[in-house]
Structure formats: C-alpha cells, structure tokens
Amino acid sequence: MKFIRVITLLELVLLFGCSLGYSQTSNLKFGLSAFPPTLDPHISGGTAARTVKLTVYEGLFSYTSEGAIQPQLAQSFEIIDPTTYVFHLRQGVKFHTGEELTASDVVYSFKRILDPATGAVLKETLGIIDKIDAPDKYTVVITLKSPFAPLLEVLATPEASIVSEKWMTSGPDLKSTMNGTGPFKLVRITPGVEILVSRNENYYIPDLPKTDSILFQVFADADARLNALLTRAVDIIEYVEWRQIPILENNPEFRVDLKPAFFQILSINCNAGPLADPRVRRAISYAINREEIVAACFEGYAEPLYGALIPKGHWAYNEDLAHYFEYNPTKAKELLAEAGYPEGFSVKLLATSAYSTHWCPAEVIQAQLAKVGIKVELELVDWPTRVQRRSDWNYEIASDGLSGYYSDPDFYYAYFYGKGSRYCHPPYFDDPVVNDLLDRGRATLDTEERKKIYHDLEARLLELSPWIFLCYRLQPYAYHKNVHDFTQLLGFLSPYTGAVLKYVWIEH
Amino acid sequence: MSGAVYYMTTYLIRRAFVTMGVLYLIATLAFFFPRLLPGDPVLLLLGEAGSTASEEAIIALRQKLGLDKPIAKQYATWLIDIVHGNFGESLFGYGQIQKLLFSRLPNSLELILFSLALACLLAIPSGILAAYFRRSKIDLAVNLLSTVGIAVPVYVLAVILILIFALKLRYFPAGGYIALGSNPIEHFKYLLLPVFTLALNQWALFARMTRSSVLEVLHEGYIQTARAKGLAESKVVMQHALRNALIPIVTLIGLQIGRLLGATVLVESIFNWPGISSLLLESATRRDYPIIQALLVVIGALVCLINCVVDITYGLLDPRIRYD
C-alpha cells in the first residue's frame, strides 16, 4: 500500500515537473557566420546584421514566411492615384524605450534615409519620394515624383525600418544600441562574440514572439558553426557549407532548409578590348558549361541559369528565354570568328580567394574558355582588394555572387541602369534600350504591361550580355528538429529570413 | 648605492629608452602598413550585401569615420591618442577598442599561459628523466611523443580532439566561450580542449629543450665536482644541473609567449575562443584599421616587456651575467 502511495506521489511529482517544463522560458540560440558591423537600421551590413535587426526593428510593411508582403506598422493603406499613397498607422505601438509610434517618426525615418549624411542603402531608390506629410498623428501621405511599382516591396525591406525620432536625434551609438518596435529588444552585445535579444513584453501582436529570447552567437569558422549545431550548443545555423550537408541529411535529429537565393555571375568590362563587342560576350556565355560548374563548385547544390534572373514561379518569369545559353562551343567559336577573333584572345579574370563560390567557377571557366581559344589569366585576390577593384572598375571580367534587393523585377535597375557609379554595375555598360525599359518598368503599375517590359529587358540583357548569368546557388540553413515554424525566405528575400524568427518556437 | 643595484638601474633606464624607440617604430609601421594594402574598409562596410551603394553613401560614410582627413593628420591624432591610452573605435561594430582589448587579451593570455604552464609542468620532468635515463625506454617514449607533438599541425590536432571529446564522447563543448565571471566551471570546460591542443606542441618543444640542456650540463666539470664531493644524486640534478639548464628554457618560454600571441589564431578560430589573435586576423581581413593598429602596438609592447623580463630573469638565474 505504502509502495503504491510512493509511486503515485512520484508520478504526480513527475507530471507536475513536466508541466513546469512547458512553462519554463524558451530560448533560441542562433549561429551567425559573422558579427554585424553595424546595427544602424538604415545601413545594410550584410545578412548577419539583417537577421539580428529584423527581430528588433520593423517597417511599414514586412515579409511573411511565404515571401508575401503584409502590413506591419501600417495597418492599412490607400493608393489615391499612382503617385499618392496614404498609410494609416497602427495605434498604440510603442518603441522599446517607451514612446509611442506616431506619423512624425515615420516622416523622420524617411528623412533620415534620404539624408546623404546617413549613408542609407535606400537613399537613391527612395529618391523617388517627392514629399512626405503627416496630416494627423496616425496618418502618413507619401507623394512620389512618378509612379513606382515596387514601392511596397521596398518598404518591406529591413533598411526601410521606422525609428523613433526622439531616440535617434539624441545621438545613440548605433553600433551597440537598438531601439525599435519589434517583437524583441536588445539586451546585451559582446562585440565579435554574441548578441542577446529578449521578448518585447509590450509587443502589439498578442502571442508573438513565440520564444522568450534569441541568443545570436558568432562562429566565423564553418566547421565550428556546424559543430555548435551538432552538439546542440545552438539550435539554428546559417551558411552551412555544401560539403557539410550530407552529415546533416544523414542525421535524423537535424533538418536542412535549402532554397535558391544568391546567383553567381561574371561581370564584364564593356570597354576592355574584345569584350566591347556583344558577340564576344555572347560567345563566352555559349562556351561556358554551367552544369560542370554546378557539379564542380556547388556539389550539385545550384541551379544552372541558361536565361536571365527572374526565376520560375515568379509572375514575370520568361520561359522562352530560359534556354538561351545552352552549352554550345561551336556557336561560341562562330561568334568569335564573326567578331574578328577566330584565334581567340587573352583576358584576365578577377576573383577572390576568400570564397570558393567565387574562385571555383572562375577556375572551371578558365578551363572551358581555353577550349574555344580564349586564354584566361586568373587574378585571385583577397576580399577587400576584390571589393576595391570592383568599385574602381579595375578588371576585365570578374566573378561575383549577388542577390537582388527585392523580388520585384525592378531589382535589375540597381545593376544595369545608366552609367551607374555603383560597384556592381558592369563597367562602361550604358544601353539606352535597357534604360528606357527600366524606367518604364518601374513607372507602370499594370502587371501585364510590366510582364512584357521585363521580357524585353531580359531579352536585351541576354543579347548584350554585360553580365553572364551562371547559376542560382542554394542557400542552406540547418536546424534541430525541435525547432518549429522556421522557414528560409525564398530567392532574393533569403537575407530577410530574420523576419520569421518571431514565429519560431522550440519544443522541449 | 651597491654595485649590482646601480648596474641594474642604469641597465633598465637604457632598456626603457630603447624600448620607447622600438615602440614608436612599431606604432608607425602599424599605422601605415595596413593602409598600404589594397582594399577600402568603407566599401566593405557598404558593399557587403552586394548591395547598391552609391557614390554619395561612400563619401558620407568615409566622412563619418574620419577617413577623409589627410593621412598625416590621422597619424598624428592617432599617436597622441594612444599615448593617452585611447585606442579609438572599431570601424566594423566591435566597439571601443580599449574595452575590446580588455575583454579579449586576457582570453588569449589565459590560453597561452595555461598551455605553457601545463606544458612546462609535464615537460621539465619528462626532459630531465629522458636526459638522466638516456637511451632508456623513457627516453624513447619522450622522443617519439615529442616528434608527434612537433609534427602534427595544430589544426589537425584540434579537429581530432573535437571529434573524440566533443562530438563522440560529449565530455567537452566543441567550441565557444563563457566568461569566467558568469560561470567558472563552464568557463574551464570551454578552456580545456583549446589548452590541450596548444599544450602538446609546447610540451614537445620544452621536453626536448630540457633534455638537451640537462644532458649538456650533466657533463660539465662542476657536476663531477659535486658528485665527488659526495652530494646526493637528486641534489646534483635539481640544484645544479636544472638551474643551469633553465636558462635556455626561460628564453624559450619568452619566445613562445611572443610567438603564441600571434600564432594562436588557428586554435582560437576552430574553438571559437575570442582572443586577440583571431581578432587580428578578422580585422586584417576586413581592413579594420583602428583594431589592426591597436593590436600591433599592444602585441609589440607585450613582446618587448616579455623580452625585458626574460633578460632580467637571466641575471637571477646566472650571477655571471652582468648588465654592462
């Protein structure tokens, strides 16, 4: 009898203890690949910085786990005419320092973005804004200089976050402090090592965030990062390397989230000798065997790009252009002969030794171009030197990996418009047809019309080939099976995956 | 004042002046050398996301960071600042450099000193035994193991230790860091594998050095004299042979600390241990000029200091060494 009583008591204790377990705090640990160089919400700083910032700062709109746009700080909006947008703000939203979000904060945030002294990423793109007014405490009216189709998408990107006017004008240290309206607030930073954010108790959406805190820890070495996940020191890691994926896939404890995100290209200096002729550039594209690159450099974790960048499934996708540059060395040689280089020529290819996703394709391409008579000299430099040379346009051909700023086809604007002093613009490429299409594409709001415009744009870009599109590489995140509702955002939105961390919960 | 103290004092004063000169040279090199490398930190700060940084944004950021001022002015300002102990701020979000140094330098020193201590603790007895029982099984074992310790690269050893003790046996974490203040026991758990990794190579060097020094000394005349005088064998070894064999060991310790301040980068990276060596590599890779400059000066100063301490220790160990 006594024995049974003891057992019952023990069972009750266990049950009670387990229920206590469900009410204990849940903390997510995230393995970053780099420490955010800045936490300023309007300056980019890379994927790691964005992942952290997206838990603390919010904009008028945000991205859902499916990559759609949802109203965030803007509760609703009206488009009065193609150049006038009225946003109605949510009421009762508080910044982490306590002050309420009002229209003047929104006006201030955009003014800050447009101020050259800030160095904001969106300064040029949002230069389309003519004026911003706050007719009352919770209403913002934005008037544009001309119609701009991707406006809402831009407003959902992390660098369009709304900041507190009162706080920002007090001159806070933006490398070590954050103050937003987001589901988490900054608790502490150990520079170079980790960042801790914890639940915002006053968050305006009930039941969010699903975890009590997120500890972002930096593991610069890819193997150290993987080991941290394998030993459960962290729950999620970013930037898994392809060679590590089999280890994870063979382990039922872990999941891998693989989605196409960044694309690899060759950027061509359109003033450099033979490269000035589009036939030569097209020849190079035909002479490249993209399948080989996918196999050799990405272990199959990449999708070859025979056409341009708008992906399958996107509303503006162009199936008819998708097989433009199928491997064809014969055609390559014909084009070279036509352009006056039947014996080929010599050219320099710049790549960084820092990332295998850059130098490996370069090496493979060197071998492939040799078969059509083009002698490639590889220039392998470290990352800062590579960045410098790209910015100075000091190269003939350069290998690069990039992403689009948003998934609206207007992302092409940043890379190909005009003379572009931007570091990613192909040197000396300035085509009036492309410029005109880009201008019309962003100013038209009708989807069918835009589809036609961007079809023509891609066709033109393929014809002139200032960039040679190689492949989309698959971006892997990995996490423990107890982590739920984590999804990497698809395509160009992948760097904004931090936006879904508020939905993630851990099973105990 | 007495002769020895007089000599010591003048020696130290002269040494101090020379050190000042060396440090000034190091500071100058530290400032200009990183800037000779191609690569602009401003571009890295803005262009990291492969994003669409414009001319204006680049100029704005350069101004904000004070990198647009004439180079001579930046140099002069920096020199004055470091004399006052102000090392400035990181360009890449690592914060105030002084604070960064205070948090990271002890981590590296901890790694270095613990591994050296462990290594010496084991190496000196091993070396003495190997020397004393020359050509015995002990000598063979020490020889073999020390060859392995010198030949195996530190990153290979690190990976093997992680595989066995962290991933398979789960005795220790695979890497990372917890501050001593927040949890001492966990702190040492994280410290153990990295220390072991470094210690093997150190042990190998010190054991061999000890062995050969002791061997050399054991054949000296004064050892024979001591034995002839009837001194116990243990005293012969401990009091006479060891004391003299310590001089090259002390040199080696000094050299190793200096070397390890820069060479622990692999261990720090693999184990994610936040020290100054990995910080220097990361900063150099990103052209974070203020940190590179500060670290080169600090490491240079430490090496000078250690050399000074080593030289003084000689005097204590060997009265024949005078400072004139």
Describe the structure.
- The complex is a heterodimer of chains A (508) and B (324).
- Chain A is α+β, with helices and mostly antiparallel strands.
- Among the domains of chain A are: 9-27 and 183-259 and 476-506, D-Maltodextrin-Binding Protein, domain 2, CATH 3.40.190; 260-473, Dipeptide-binding Protein, Domain 3 (Dipeptide-binding Protein, domain 3), CATH 3.10.105.10.
- Helix content of chain A is 31%, strand content 23%.
- Chain A has 15 helices and 19 strands.
- In chain A, the strands form four sheets. In chain A, strands 1, 8, 9, 10, 11, 12, 13, 14, 15, 16 and 17 form an eleven-stranded mixed beta sheet that branches.
- The longest helix of chain A is centred in the first third of the chain and has 21 residues, at 2-22.
- The model of chain A is unreliable at 17-22 (pLDDT under 50).
- Chain B is an all-alpha fold and 324 residues long.
- In chain B, 77% of the residues lie in helices and 0% in strands.
- The longest helix of chain B has 36 residues, at 97-132.
- Chains A and B meet through helix 2, helix 6, helix 12 and strand 16 of A and helix 2, helix 3, helix 5, helix 7 and helix 12 of B.
Q: What structural class do the secondary elements of chain A suggest?
A: alpha+beta
Strand content of chain A: 15-25%
CATH-defined architecture of the domain at 260-473 in chain A:
Roll
- Regarding quaternary structure, what we see is heterodimer
Based on CA atoms alone, the radius of gyration of chain A comes out at 25 Å
What characteristic shape of chain B results from the CA principal axes? Answer: flat
Biggest beta sheet attributes of chain A: 11 strands, mixed
Number of strands of chain A: 19
| Topology of chain B as a string of helices (H) and strands (E) | HHHHHHHHHHHHH
Give the biggest beta sheet of chain B.
none
